[in-house]
Amino acid sequence: MSEALETKTKDIVKMFAGAVEAHDYNIIAALLADDGKFEIKDEQLEVIESDKSSFLGWLTTELLATTITKIEYDNCILCRVGNPVILFNDGHFPKMKLELSTKSMNGFMLHVIDNQIRELSFCYSFAHRENKYQFECNCDEAKMLMSKSKDMTLTEAITTVLTSKGYTDI
Fold this sequence. Notes:
Elements: H1 3-22, H2 25-31, E1 32-41, E2 47-50, H3 52-64, E3 71-75, E4 84-88, H4 98-101, E5 107-113, E6 116-123, H5 132-148, H6 154-164
Parallel strand pairs: 1-6
Antiparallel strand pairs: 1-2, 3-4, 4-5, 5-6
């Protein structure tokens, strides 16, 4: 990646983070691609894919219930290796399922193309932070699959679990 392109991506990531912190929906909307794919969480906190309009509505609702007190940056090491990740409030915004929230972190992974955010998804695997609980959850799911199908290997079970969560670089 060229240095100029990398700088622009970093600028877009920081502009997005600052706009989220400031609740500046005009800047957020301008940074998101009209035809992009953006993950949100439903009422049960399950992750679903949405369009730009639905994402903006969801984010508005989420931000009304919280104050951003801390912004950190990292990189994804699983679903889109190297892509920038923004962690708000130590990875506790947006909220997660109660059983995950005390032990695990999530961040926004951004995929920037042509100076716009084309994809925004939740990321749980970071280059500079250990998110051990997510790893443990994935292993538990793999073990459960293996117990249901006695001839499934550990590699097949882990691949199945990660693929079901949208990880593409396995």
